[in-house]
Amino acid sequence: MAVVTKPPYTDQISRIIDKLKNLTDEPWLEFELDREQYLDLQPILEKEASIHKLRYDYFSSTHTFILRVASQPHEIVVCETRSVIEALKMEIAAQEWPAATLAKKTSKSRSGKIHLDNCADHVPDGSFFYDGLKYPPVVFEVSYTQNVKELSNLAWDYILGSKGNIRVVFGIDMGKDYESATISVWRAPYRAVGGLVELYPKLTVDHEEFRDQFGKATGNPKAHLQLELKDFVGHIGLDPQIKLDIPIGISSETLCSFVDMAKKEATKITNNELKAYPLPPGVIEADREGTPPDELDGKHETQFLAAEG
Prior knowledge:
alpha+beta; five-stranded antiparallel sheet; five-stranded mixed sheet; 8 helices; about 20% strand; disordered N terminus; disordered C terminus
């Protein structure tokens, strides 16, 4: 049997691998990749993403690969948002009413890869699944101002690529230097166009400011995150006999407090104020065990076997 060898990576893939293995503080890196190049990158991408908690997006329609490096301040906003929503869902699940059964079927937030029907892949900051559904009904992203335009592209890809099964996408823009911060929400309604009915990702909350340029809460009522239980259960859970318009939301003041925490963490990192303690006397570090070489996925291994055969 012939030995399977990897063909050399293209220059573009090599550049991405170099970035993966030498991560910097750049929160956003963008590359052009065709579908075959993206598939070649997958084995090492999956390994590095799990180690470094990377987020990434592949837009098949534009052959665009985006690598997002989550910072500690970024993760604070993500985790606090998840925690509040999870707590509200648990409160509903603990009640003595029919909706409690549905609330129990909503899963905790995840950040794993979502493969869409349009061959696009995305790793969101958070997604809320419902038992039995392929796609999470609610997805959210946390962004920086310089990348806020991509939130709209992501929302359209999530909604259209899932055929409307992803019903709500919300994005939190932390602002430049954690100052003015906004929230946006996209939903998945239908609309009539030329005698036809089409699925149209609708921007229902358009960059509403909840934190002003001075870092103060605006008290803007339009900047509240206003969701309901029905948003989290998907089409499969809709039942006209069960009350599903139960609020699950976060006030603009609370959102502002999340960014406050993120900014404080960023300041500590910049000023080198975070503590790390040395090993106790007499304790040494173990030698790192060797890692297996990257393996080809099944499709490409078959192709290379045939070529070598």
